[in-house]
Design brief:
alpha/beta, disordered N terminus, 17% strand
């Protein structure tokens, strides 16, 4: 019997540019007991065999085929393989969203950090609701 979608473990892939910040968010979720309520796991490029210099397009495609949420900082549109251009070119109704920390530098603020962490887990726990939206900014 297949488990309900709400109880499936969601994997979040931390962009190599925000691995440290992802660890900080994960610490908030662990210490607050949030992951007991809504299970998820965090992986890094090295964990899944992605190169740190993989193109944004390759990373987006990998996250989609691996059914992972991609967590990024606020990337800009630079070139044909930029994340924004990739989303514009390849997004579809079943695609998982890219979750972007709107203000990475504000993660030093406890309130902002907690809001980002909880919002990330909220998105992960209701992943089907956000398919096809392209990108979501947190908090």
């Amino acid at each position: 019997m297949e488990e309900p979608a709400s109880e499936k473990l969601v994997t979040i892939l931390a962009d190599h540019n925000v691995e440290g910040q992802a660890d900080v968010l994960w610490g908030v979720l662990l210490s607050g007991g949030w992951l007991e309520i809504s299970p998820a796991r965090l992986v890094r490029f090295a964990d899944v065999g992605l190169s740190d210099n993989a193109t944004d397009r390759a990373v987006w495609r990998f996250a989609q085929t691996s059914k992972m949420l991609l967590l990024t900082g606020n990337r800009r549109m630079k070139g044909d393989d930029s994340l924004e251009q990739t989303i514009r070119d390849e997004n579809h109704v079943a695609a998982l969203p890219v979750v972007t920390i709107a203000r990475v530098e504000r993660l030093i603020e406890p309130d902002y950090r907690e809001r980002c962490a909880v919002r990330l887990l909220d998105i992960a726990s209701e992943i089907d609701r956000y398919r096809g939206v392209g990108r979501l900014f947190i908090p």
